[in-house]
Every structure is written in C-alpha cells, then in structure tokens.
Design brief:
Helix content: under 10%
Largest sheet: 7 strands, mixed
Order of helices and strands: EEEEEEEEEEEEEEEEEE
Shape: globular
Structural class: mainly beta
Length: about 180
C-alpha cells in the first residue's frame, strides 16, 4: 500500500517572533525524498535521513506562518501526502504555564495519570501537546485544567508540554511550558 507520512513540529506549539522550531516529516520508506509545501506552493526538497526529513525555522517572522505539508516522492512520482500542519508565529503576552503530572512522570502500564496545566490567569484555555503529534492531545479549559489518561500504555509515553491562550478581540498566547517526559514501564 501507499506509505503513510507523519508531520509534526519539534518542539510543538505557537512560536514567538525570533523563535525557532523544526518541521519533521517521517515516512516508513527510506528511499525517495520529501518535498515541503507551504500554503499549496512547493517550498523545497528535503534530504531524507533514515526515514525522516527536517526543515528548521529559525528567527521566525510572520512570514513563516502558514499551512505546511510534506509530499513523499520516489522517482518524481508522489506516493503520499501528509496532513496539513499549521505553523503560527505570535507574540507571547500571557505568563508561562506549568505542566505537572500525577502520580509522577514514571508510571506502570495501566496506571491512572493526570496532567495539569497551571497558569496565573483567570480565563485562559490551554493546549496539551505530545511531541510527534500533529495536533494537540487535548484542549484544557479553566473549568477543567487537567487531562486524564485512565489506562496508560506505552503509546502514551513521550514528551509533553502545554501552552495557554485567551480569546478576546484577538488570541493572546503564553510561552510553552517546560517539557515533561512520561515514562511508561
């Protein structure tokens, strides 16, 4: 069958002006190459290292905002396309949140885990990110600022972070929290 491609930001989240991030594309095949598209326009061909290719954004500006996707080509034929990854560049105006996890970041499979994202702001919503995922794992509200995993499994392990925002006349964003590595034994 056609190969599947995943695309994600490392580290995930909205980037501040002058900030940096890396767009990662991963494919199960290791011959062929990736072409990165931005807003439907071909941006550049990416070198494949093993089964992944990376495109770094540094000193980010509003110009870097956009919808990115990877096309996987072999001999000039497009074999697969990734989903679309939204990259946003925004000033951070909210305080930085703190991500915590109970009972701790090392747990046994089957355990009950709670992630909590805390921010010193009365009505901010927060996204919980897991590095390697194209979309946020969850959207946390002021009323429910935690995310439960009732039966943790190996697929839940990885690097988590959170980032908060307020919706007024416009969106205002916080920086991304420090990361938390969840280890599932």
């Amino acid at each position: 069958g056609a190969p599947t491609i995943s695309i994600f930001l490392k580290p995930p989240g909205v980037i501040p002006p002058g900030g940096s991030t890396t767009i990662c594309c991963i494919c199960q095949h290791d011959n062929g190459n990736f072409v990165l598209y931005k807003n439907g326009q071909q941006l550049r061909t990416l070198e494949l290292r093993g089964s992944r290719a990376e495109f770094s954004i540094s000193n980010a500006t509003q110009e870097d905002t956009g919808a990115y996707s990877c096309h996987y080509l072999d001999g000039g034929t497009v074999l697969a396309r990734s989903e679309t990854l939204e990259v946003m560049v925004q000033e951070f105006r909210l305080p930085k949140p703190v991500l915590s996890v109970l009972p701790g970041h090392k747990v046994a499979a089957g355990a009950y885990v709670i992630f909590r994202c805390t921010i010193a702001h009365s009505n901010a919503g927060c996204f919980l990110y897991l590095e390697g995922q194209i979309k946020a794992v969850d959207l946390l509200s002021k009323e429910q600022n935690y995310f439960n995993l009732s039966h943790v499994h190996k697929g839940n392990r990885g690097r988590y972070s959170c980032q908060c925002f307020t919706k007024g006349a416009s969106f205002e964003w916080s920086a991304v929290s420090k990361t938390l590595d969840l280890v599932v034994r």
